[in-house]
Amino acid sequence: MVARAWRSAGWWRDRGVTLLYGHSATAIDPAIRRVRLASGATLPFTKLVLATGSRPIRLNVPGMDLPGVMTFRDLGDVAAI
Questions:
Q1: Closest CA to 73 of 55, 61, 59
Q2: Residue 53 · residue 1 · CB < 8 Å
Q3: For 41-50, how does the pLDDT look when each residue is reduced to its tens digit (9 = 90+)?
Q4: Could you tell me which residues come within 8 angstroms of residue 20 by beta carbon, excluding any fewer than 6 positions away?
Q5: HEC sequence for the chain
Q6: How far apart are CA 72 and CA 70, in angstroms?
Q7: How far is the C-alpha of 81 from the C-alpha of 36, rounded, in Å?
Q8: Confidence of residue 1 (pLDDT cuts 50, 70, 90)
Q9: Which of 11, 33, 40, 76 is an S-S bond match for 7, by CB 3.0 to 4.6 Å?
Q10: Stretch 24-33: mean pLDDT, rounded?
Q11: Best CA proximity match to 48, nearest among 74, 18, 75, 26
Q12: 9: pLDDT confidence band, cut at 50, 70 and 90?
């Protein structure tokens, strides 16, 4: 899977943001502000964003493959429609 960031890694780093691509979070403890990764590592956080990288669901219904039938997941998709 290819990760896509809206800004460069340097832009985020300059603002004190740590980006981790391809790491699964298995637990979040908001009381102590730590997230546990599938590797067993734990990381502190001030603010936490979990980006799932999901794709829009395409229903298995007649007509879903017709021209002009679209899915949307974000504002970019809506603008394209």
A1: 55
A2: yes
A3: 999 999 988 7
A4: 37, 43
A5: CCCCCCCCHHHHHHCCCCCCCCCCEEEEECCCCEEEECCCCEEECCCCCCCCCCCCCCCCCCCCCCCCCCCCCCHHHHHHC
A6: 7
A7: 38
A8: very low
A9: 11
A10: 93
A11: 18
A12: confident
Token duo for residue 21: 């691509």
Amino acid at 38: A
* Residue found by looking up tokens 């809206």 in the block: 6
Q: Which two tokens stand for residue 37?
A: 């990764």
Tokens of 67: 């021209």
Number of residues that this document lists for the chain: 81
Report which residue type is found at 2.
V
And the tokens for 79? 């603008």
